[in-house]
Amino acid sequence: MTTTYYLFFLLxxxxxxxxxxxxxxxVNAFFALLVAALGVGxxxxxxxxxxxxxxxxxxxxxxEKIGLLIILGTTLGVILEKTGATTxxxxxxxxMVKEKNAPIxxxxxxxxxxxxxxxxxxxxxxxxxxxxxxxxTNYGMxxxxxxxxxxxxxxxxxxxxxxxxxxxxxxxxxxxxxxxLWGILLAIPAALVGFLWGVWQGKKVAYEYIEQERxxxxxxxxxxxxxxxxxxxxxxxxxxxxxxxxxxTTPQGLEKNMLLQIxxxxxxxxxxxxxxxxxxxxxIQKELSHWLSDGVDKAGMILAIIAAGxxxxxxxxxx
Length: 319
Hints:
Structural class: mainly alpha
Low-confidence stretches: 212-217
Number of helices: 14
Strand content: under 5%
Largest sheet: none
Mean pLDDT: 84
């Protein structure tokens, strides 16, 4: 019979194995997590027949809870990036706060754009704007890059449908709508701390600005700001409306009121994101099927890794 100390050792050893294989040996995270899950099952003495069942259960439950959410969120991000909607949103925010407040502008832009777009993609998409602001203002690239990166990453870590927090909710349980709303609220002070730190420390960093060749989208080709913001704001508003409604409605009252049922339906994170994707179609002039395929393709590897994490988590629970 395995002891608590032995199981704790297996837990620590498996995590060290995952970090070592992915960070140092550059093994794909899916296979690292799969091998770790198998190792924990075998070394803990779990019956061989049960190990396969646990792996399948972990994979299936994870996809059931968050699979659609990841695909829709990724697709929305791709459409906003490809259509120039992210640049349109950034320009709109910049006009409101003026160029003298460039770090604040890029931080707010990163925060809003970071909701549907992954932090790495958002950073790349907005790098052209950042270079332009560095040339036009007295702020250096270390300040601007830190302001953008920390706001993007605060949202990426705390707000669904980003993979990490979404997978955590799927594993630990919880209401995705409430997690999204609380995540946004918690991301604000996190981004603010990063912004203040970037402005404070960034001015101390010596750097040499190097002009980079960039591909610009002409202003006249950019979608209107209101149309660019709508696919991001609308899903959040729908999810918030359901969460607020549930605070003042009983299950019995919900069953008797068709309007409340509709609000509950469209406020489900999956449905709200699907509506956001449909609304984003208004931004597209061409290549709709190609961009939809890009969104699904980009989500594929993320889903595989998260599903492997689900298998690993299920194995830990089973042992």
